[in-house]
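In this section we walk through a basic example: taking a raw amino acid sequence and producing a predicted 3D structure, encoded as discrete structure tokens. The instruction is simple. Fold the sequence below.
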Amino acid sequence: MNKAEYGTVIAIQANYYQVRLEYFSNKLFLCTRRSRLKKIGQSVMVGDRVWVEDVDHLNQQGAISSVEPRKNELSRPPMANADQILLVFSLADPPLEEWQLSRFLVKAESADLELCLCLNKQDLVSEEEQKQWQERLIQWGYQPLLISVDKQQGIDPLRQQLNQKITLMAGPSGVGKSSLINILVPGVAQRVNQVSGKLHRGRHTTRHVELFELPTGGLLADTPGFNQPDLEIEAAQLIFHFPEARRLLETGICQFNDCSHREEPNCVVRGSWERYEHYLKFLEEAIQQAIAQQARGEEESSLKSMTKESGKQEYEPKLAKKKYRQTSRRIKHQQLHELYHEQSARSEDELQE
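The resulting token sequence is shown next.
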């Protein structure tokens, strides 16, 4: 058996894994996963550092035998070992919406990764509008990179930001993510769709997570576009995902340890920054999610999950133990068998008497 080779999972297709081996970076090996990994519950994700056995260099195949410990893991999108998030928005076509941008920023902050904010299509707005957005976002706590994919402006500073890192690209549809990848990774030929003229929103083109190797070093992952990401953040932790609020908390302390920064007296955060209204809305959403989750937990504790013939999962009331459940045929047969032997033994004792 040849020695195991070290590599990175680039993409996953069904039960096969595309792995770029360290010593053969110009080739992608199509690998399976050892059944032992499945038995011990070890999953394999895009971005995983893995060891590959039975490497067939001629057919570019192998089998993943082990997965190195992950430094981080994201569930949506499913990816491991990312260094930073590249959040891409456009200044026009579709226009930049502050609520949507704020939501994406909070979601990106919750991933606990380095964050790079990139604003595309700067050629479609005036210099004054560009400056206004830059100054505004600096107040939010971000230093945006302004680029134009169409005119290929501002790309070099972005390349430097991506150099030697595993970067997760995210953002709403239609802002030019696929076109940007075509520039950053020549030859990748991502499909690019035109923005819907009716809704001024993009048609989603990316279907799965895949890592692309950058010519200057590093890996870039594109993820499916979406317009309203789920925050899924605990209400008590939400405030820490706003950089401007973190600055305020560094300069003072709220009167109450469990301050929600709404109506409490002597709150150092409340009402003194532009996105405070965003925080209140997202906080209410987080509270409602927690209430719904608790209600589902209480409901499901009295229900059991049943899979119907159609494949759809439904919940049915659980029957109380012993009171309503019917005895199985196997137990009934066993009880009859024991009763028969008991009666036979009793009959023999009576005859002997």
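Looking at the output, two observations stand out. Residues 276-301 form the longest helix (26 residues). The chain has eight helices and 15 strands. In the next section we compare this with other chains.
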